[in-house]
Amino acid sequence: MGFWSRTFTWWNGATWGTGLFTRLHGKEVGRDDAGNVYFEGKKNPATRWVIYNGSNDGSRVPPDWQAWLKGTIDGLPDTSLPDRRRFEQPPQVNPTGTMAAFRPDGSLSKNQLRPASTGDYQAWTPD
Q1: Dist. CA 84–CA 86, nearest whole Å
Q2: Where is this region: Disordered (predicted)?
Q3: What is the pLDDT of residues 62-81, one digit of tens each?
Q4: Radius of gyration over every alpha carbon of the chain, rounded to an integer in angstroms
């Protein structure tokens, strides 16, 4: 990541200001499988934040860490939450704006025809 990008943009990682604040006032408490790093305040442990590994997108925070960030659970997710059940699927990031997003038939990017209407629709025409 370039100097200017790191200095002035927040959407593709932590800025220098956030990094400096984190070094001065934060204590690392854990990391998730995606590489996001979680911190709590040195003076006030109820203050919690995340430094994303890549783009800043809240859907990239797993539900267990989301609960910790919001204060729903006091302890860290590894010790405060039960193990994941067999039927539970791993969380997924929001695919909006990517090629994995849902595209209905008739979408310009899907190259398919829209299904014919059912006949219960009549277009409005001005009088």
Answers
A1: 7
A2: 79-127
A3: 999 999 999 999 999 988 88
A4: 22
Residue 37: pLDDT above 90?
yes
Q: List, as one string, the DSSP characters of 1-24.
A: --HHHHHH-STTS--HHHHHHHHH
Question: What was the pLDDT predicted at 68?
Answer: 95
Hey, where are the domains in the chain?
3-75
For residue 19, give the nearest of 33, 4, 39, 2 by alpha carbon: 39
pLDDT at 39: 96
Sign of the Cα pseudo-torsion (7, 11, 14, 17, in order): positive
Which residues does 91 contact at the CB level (< 8 Å), separation at least 6? 62, 63
